[in-house]
Amino acid sequence: MSHLVSIQTEVRDPAAIRAACDRLHLPEPVFGQTKLYSSTATGWAVRLPDWRYPIVCDVSTAQIAFDNFGGRWGEQVQLDRFFQGYAVERTKIEARKKGHSVTEQPLEDGSVKLTIQVGGAV
Amino acid sequence: MNKTIEIIVAPNGQTRVETQGFVGSECRDASRFIEQALGQQTDELLKAEFHQTVSNQQQIRQGE
């Protein structure tokens, strides 16, 4: 028997945040208190391309704080790319921790396919 | 058959995890670590591939 599971990605791992930034050629994430337009947030601040304010990832709650003024101060697609990069890197990190080999393949629709060989050495 | 876990990460970061080549509930145990690491499960579909194959063979025989 096999199964298929859909998952809503949650950002909870600083190592994967760092790896996602590296993958997307973004500045390194910085931990601390960050000022947004009218508020402040504490967590890992990530600077997305052409966004006026950083996004702030609170890994203890998986909440992402940001203010892009409904898209006028930063495109949603950049945030989506960060989520995708995070999910890819988190998967690779966790697979390698278990000693599994993992391969990555880009798909035509912009998705990324990862295949983990269970029991295969890295 | 090789045991694999396939993960499709959509452009918006949503993921789909699919196991292949496992026997019984072994598949759930094998992929649990990756599902827990990625976030909240929103949907699950069990694929009884073995039984489906038997059923297809029976249908072919009945049609003969």
UniProtKB/TrEMBL annotation, chain A:
It comes from the Bacteria. This is DUF1257 domain-containing protein. The lineage of its organism: Bacteria, Pseudomonadati, Planctomycetota, Planctomycetia, Pirellulales.
Automatic annotation (TrEMBL), chain B:
Pfam families: DUF2997. InterPro entries: DUF2997. It comes from Lignipirellula cremea. It comes from the Bacteria. The lineage of its organism: Bacteria, Pseudomonadati, Planctomycetota, Planctomycetia, Pirellulales. This is DUF2997 domain-containing protein.
